[in-house]
Design goal:
This protein has about 180 residues and is α/β, with parallel strands linked by helices. About 50% of the residues lie in helices and about 10% in strands. β4, α6 and β5 form a beta-alpha-beta unit.
Length: about 180
Amino acid sequence: MPGYILTGAPGSGKTAILRHLELDGHPVVEEAATDVIALRQALGRPEPWREPDFAERVLDLQRRRRRRAEMFGDDVVFHDRSPVCTLALCRHLGMTPPSALLDEIEGMTTERTVFFVRNQGFVEATAARRISFEESLVFERVHELTYREAGFDLVDVPAGPLATRVAAIKQAVDRLRAARVRT
């Protein structure tokens, strides 16, 4: 299953890009951390990212969603974040990453290309996104370094209009797929 990861700082526009790609007919794998946070907050846990099992909960949901995506066969699948993002979050929060997370990253073999969605110059706060723009820039750098250290290929998606960003991703995917066919 050809898959591509979208990552970047909170509020960079990943989800809007993913929605556009989905409406264009591409299968998508939803981000897990925001959903884990929303559920835990609904259960009365105001800051679930501070709980010791937070990374494991995110990883578990990521795994289940990735397994469901395997039914798409040869379609290009876009993933909103990956376990590497969870590792970056652990690093950013000063948490020790669980060994299962490190094992999961080690076993990632198919999705080696990451579209790094750059910040748009602001961050809008949500119940799950309680980060200032300045903090998001630090987190963006942690994400970038974590992916590079894990050996992923990053394709930069600069700030800009949504349609331009989506078109750039589609063009890059076409080039990447054509290069695979030639080799």
